[in-house]
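Comment thread on ticket #2218

A.B. wrote:
> Attaching the input chain for the structure job we discussed in standup.
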Amino acid sequence: MSIATAEYDYVVVGAGPAGCLLANRLSANPAHRVLLLEAGGRDNYPWIHIPVGYLFCIGNPRTDWCFKTEAQEGLQGRALSYPRGKVLGGCSSINGMIYMRGQAQDYDGWAAAGNAGWGWKDVLPLFKQSENHFAGSSEFHSDGGEWRVEQQRLHWPILDAFRDAAAQSGIASISDFNQGDNEGCGYFQVNQKAGVRWNAAKAFLKPIRQRPNLTVLTDVEVDRVLLENGRASQVVGRQHGQQSSWRARKEIVLCAGSVGSPGILQRSGIGPSNVLKPLGIEVLHELPGVGGNLQDHLQLRLIYKLEKARTLNQIAGSVWGKMGMGLRYLYDRSGPLSMAPSQLGAFARSGPEQTSANLEYHVQPLSLERFGEPLHAFPAFTASVCDLRPQSRGRIDIRSANPADAPLIRPNYLSHPEDLRVAADAIRLTRRIVAAPALSQFKPVEYLPGDSLQTEEELHEAAARIGTTIFHPVGTCRMGTDQDAVVDAQLRVHGVPGLRIADASIMPRITSGNTCSPTLMIAEKAAQLILSPNTRNLVPEREMTAPA
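C.D. wrote:
> Ran it. Output below, let me know if you need it in another format.
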């Protein structure tokens, strides 16, 4: 049963980081009536807000869509869990809280590929606009925004020793990864406030929840966008089992992420015909790039057993240790419960042929066989390393016309020979760091993948066996001007007036680091493009014919 169509100026689909920020900016003008639709629920689950609670949010159907990839040939036929936030704040409610912009050359590369206005000098002010940095205002930072950035509230001797070992291996210690060149080693800055997770809902929605011109609806699963005379005009979805539709007088903006946004387009009849026709979906507008260009950071988790080291493995392995962690967090919001999943970071070059850092390390004072399992009983640390610029490309497509059916996620990890080469080099670099004098007092022994593996072929096999996603899918609605691009530089869907996309799916190439804050920057840019009278009525760069 349907109800009458409600009408708004702007309909924003998805209340993840991008949707929360965009709803804030669009509704700042009281003349704009704005609707924000979220498929998940409210962010009122207590473990969302305690930083270590990511352990109880990822893989939990209350807060995570619990997607899985298809079996991956490059990972020895393994299918990986593919967490995505299912709650207000989206992935910012379950992620690692790491504040990372990437490298200046990432954005200069976007601009050089034909996306005017997306170079580093263009996007740096957008990062600063939403930022509230603990160190105050400077050339690279701002304290006037909503997105709180703080230093972590604890240090670990084993991580300090890794940082020193990295310096002995040629990776200098630095204090700030966010000035355009992130090469170096240091503690990550995090999106927390006084030891509590600072998600996008807290930052951008809660301060404005009383605006009468903003409506936020949760538990709304969007099915598709309706076109009228080729223009996007309505969003159709279901809330509590009842079908509803919402009309946009001005624009519909998809902020459903690299999994959700291409799915909505495809169910709307916008996408590649070879995907849609076999599912019985009428092709209203052929856009072959929808769902393609999937990129992700594949991490290799190297684990080292230690002697005479204090790690979370021992602390969390006893009742008294757990009680101590809880009491410390209650006292001053510090200690292990305030930990981001990764504390120490490093950006390095896998080899001398690299012109900038192409590896990112997430170093943790803990270890476990796989995510969701108990910590090891022995002291250990994990050095996870990922290729920042993977060459492999995959796809995300709908499985059927039913929005309740999980998508087909095929990242094609390690399908490009260059990715295998970088993976082997990354393992070798990690071993050089761990062999440096600064870590010798802890007598590290490689537990995973095992130091008996030495040849190129053995290291390729190791990468395929231990590789896993670090949860950074991007690129499935790529920005550009060629025939496989989905949006133009103004984020308008090619050939579909009234429809934009503003989330990580528009990235032409993945950024060199964690992707949450770049997604906020994209939404900030979208708000400018939508609200600026100089860009509002521009004709798309690559105009297409109206749907037949």
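A.B. wrote:
> Thanks. Noting for the ticket: The two ends are 29 Å apart (CA to CA).
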